[in-house]
Every structure is written in structure tokens, then in C-alpha cells.
Design goal:
This protein is mainly alpha-helical.
Length: about 250
């Protein structure tokens, strides 16, 4: 699905279709692009590739729990973390928008498919490390290295690609690319390994020692890691001594 939403965004940016968008248009586009991911566990549990989810009840399906985990994380990220970008990097969204806590509501949905893609790739990379190398110092160092590099790479590439959209601006764009990417990368330093392990026993055949993850466990996991990220962001903000403003009514 990643090529589809990226392709849709690419068309909107290249042909500057956003110039005719209203607040409602942004909502329709972003909700519409998020719906296939949100509805897949319910309507296509096999994911078109004979996934074991097809034989599980809805709330036991990995795709359903993964959607819940990412949806909560995306909500926290927009509702809270965005204000660190407003305060620290002087970022602004100036397109027409219906807002919640001064963040365009469309972005709550856009973040869902952005983050879903990021965490699919991070899971693939980290699982490759875990399954290729024996447990030990070498694997641990490699695992940490992959998390750090891919976190910064993901943050930098999003910052770079979104620069073509004129209604998301920074006071200092060079700072946004360098310091801002490192700041944004804090999200993924925590969430990439957290998402890998939150329900990693789901396909385990043996019942003994198997970790059973409920929807409530999923909610608590996402909220807990979300709080860890918030604290880390605030430590950085305190270190550079910049006041935090949350919930301003102005764009």
C-alpha cells in the first residue's frame, strides 16, 4: 500500500493540487488514504497473502493490534509532539485546516499511514538483524546502530520531502534538516524497537512461555512508549532552554 499513498501525495505535490484544497479537502484526502490500512484487518485479514490473521478473531489479529498501536502513537505525536516543533523549530502549518489543539486534523490521519510505512521497514530491518546473528554483543551493537541510523534517515527524508509543500514552514530550514531531523528522530529511537517487540510472539507455535497480547496491552504499550518520547523531547527542550507553548488558537 505504501506506493499507493506515496503516489497519491506525489501527484498532489507535483501538480500543486493542494492550491485548490479547502480544509475539508485535506480531511477527505488524508482520511481516505488512511482508511485502507484501518479497514484491512476487518475486511481483508488475509492481507491478500494468506496471513495467519485470517483465522484469528478480530481483536486477536496482529494487523488490528498494530493499527491500534500506530493510531494511538500518531494521535499522541500530533496532539503533543507537534508543539515541540512549533516551539523549538518555529514550524507552522498555514494551509486551510480544521484543527485539534492547533494541529490540522488531517495530519492525525496522514501520520497513520506515514508511521505504518516507517514501522514496516524498521521491523524488516531489525528482524533481519535478530534472525541473522546470534545473540551477543555484536548483534546488540548492530541492532542499536540500525535503530539510530534508520531513525535519523527516516526523520531527515520526511523533512526533506515535505519541503516541497509550501504550507509547512520553518524559521530556519537548514536547522530543520539537521537539528530538526535529530529531534524528530527521537520518536523513532523509541518506537522502532518498541513496535518490533510489542507482539513478537503472535506467530509462535508453542504455548509455553508465549506472550499473549490483548488490545488493552496494546493500548498501554503505545501510551507508555509515547510518554517516554514526550519526556525525551522535553529534556531536549529544557536543555536548549526554549519555552513550550501548547494549544495556541492561532496557526
Amino acid at each position: 500500500y505504501t506506493p499507493m499513498w506515496i503516489g497519491a501525495f506525489g501527484i498532489i505535490i507535483v501538480f500543486q493540487l493542494y492550491e485548490d484544497f479547502t480544509a475539508t479537502t485535506y480531511n477527505v484526502v488524508c482520511v481516505g488514504l488512511a482508511l485502507p490500512l484501518l479497514l484491512q484487518p476487518l475486511l481483508l485479514p488475509s492481507a491478500g497473502c494468506n496471513s495467519p490473521d485470517k483465522d484469528r478473531p478480530l481483536t486477536d489479529r496482529y494487523a488490528f493490534k498494530a493499527n491500534v498501536w500506530i493510531a494511538i502513537y500518531s494521535f499522541i505525536g500530533n496532539y503533543w509532539y507537534t508543539h515541540y516543533f512549533y516551539s523549538v523549530l518555529k514550524a507552522k502549518y498555514t494551509m486551510p485546516a480544521h484543527r485539534l489543539n492547533n494541529v490540522p486534523i488531517a495530519l492525525y490521519f496522514a501520520t497513520h499511514y506515514y508511521f505504518s510505512t516507517y514501522h514496516v521497514f524498521s521491523n524488516a530491518l531489525l528482524r533481519k538483524v535478530v534472525t541473522t546473528y546470534k545473540a551477543g554483543m555484536t548483534r546488540t551493537v548492530l541492532f542499536i546502530g540500525v535503530v539510530v541510523v534508520f531513525s535519523y534517515f527516516t526523520a531527515f527524508m520526511e523533512t526533506l520531502t515535505i519541503s516541497s509543500f509550501p504550507y509547512y514552514s520553518f524559521e530556519d530550514r537548514d536547522m530543520a534538516y539537521t537539528v530538526g531531523s535529530a529531534f524528530y528522530g527521537i520518536y523513532f529511537l523509541v518506537s522502532f524497537p518498541a513496535f518490533l517487540y510489542f507482539d513478537d510472539d503472535i506467530d509462535k507455535k508453542e504455548k509455553v512461555g508465549k506472550k499473549e497480547v490483548t488490545i488493552w496491552d496494546t493500548v498501554v504499550s503505545s501510551c507508555g512508549y509515547g510518554m517516554m518520547i514526550l519526556i525525551l523531547l522535553d529534556f531536549v527542550r529544557l536543555y536548549i532552554n526554549i519555552p513550550l507553548v501548547v494549544g495556541s488558537l492561532t496557526p
